[in-house]
Amino acid sequence: MIGERIKRAHAAVGLSMQALVDQVERWLALKNVWPNFPIASFNYHPDVSIVSTLDAVEQVAAKVRTDWQLGMNLLPDLIDLLESKGILVIVSNVPQADKFDGLQAKISGQPIVVVSSHWPGCRQRFTLAHELGRLVLHGLLDEPIDEEMACNRFAFAFLLPEVGLFQHLGERRSNVDPKELYFLKHEYGLSMAACLYRSADLGVITEGKKRQIFMQFSKNGWRKQEPWNLYPQEQILLFEQ
């Protein structure tokens, strides 16, 4: 039953699910024997009307930060934050990692987010924020809005708020140096590529400049592996405890 629900939640072609199903079953078995399971029920619903634009998605992400009193700086230990809000997180070493970032499912009313252990921390964090966006935005998106685009925009805005980007880069730039993107990456835990997308989304640079910089990324092989130090992976502590 659990395996079927997970398979319906994620359609990654050719991905072996057995190891993932086993992990989820172990987690739920542990939950059932834990006298006072330390993860509360997820019951957050933003007080917003129908979301009809990506700019409105941005406002929802800002509202979540405000409602949860998170401020506007780096969100350390994102897994710990999500679990404190009622979302169970599993870090899985599923095979074929190049086809799998993560997934989200609800089993017996418990939201579960699974993220791959094979990616650097910044990619894990984006996946976690993306799946949080899927939970928060559920039932709020106007029909013309693409859900994946909305969840991406939510993740960008949740991890790197507008005020943070403007403080580091200003509101208008003719160019952005890769080193600046690297510093932003380690300041907010978002990949250099994602920081570049964020810069274009907020109009700091033009779409043309974004494409030009991405061409440089491709030429240097940075689309597959970004330069310099990796961002540390997210750590899961609750299951070990």
Question: What topology does this entry show?
Answer:
Blueprint: H1 2-9, H2 18-33, H3 54-67, H4 78-84, E1 88-92, E2 102-107, E3 110-116, H5 121-137, H6 147-159, H7 162-169, H8 178-188, H9 192-201, H10 207-220
Parallel strand pairs: 1-3
Antiparallel strand pairs: 2-3
Helix pairs in contact: 3-6, 5-6, 8-9, 9-10
Q: What does this protein structure show overall?
A:
The model is unreliable at 1-9 and 11-15 (pLDDT under 50). The protein has helices at residues 2-9, 18-33, 54-67, 78-84, 121-137, 147-159, 162-169, 178-188, 192-201, 207-220; strands spanning 88-92, 102-107, 110-116. Helix content is 49%, strand content 7%. The protein is mainly alpha-helical. It has a domain at 160-230.
Observed structural traits:
241 residues, mainly alpha, 3-stranded mixed sheet, 3 strands, disordered N terminus
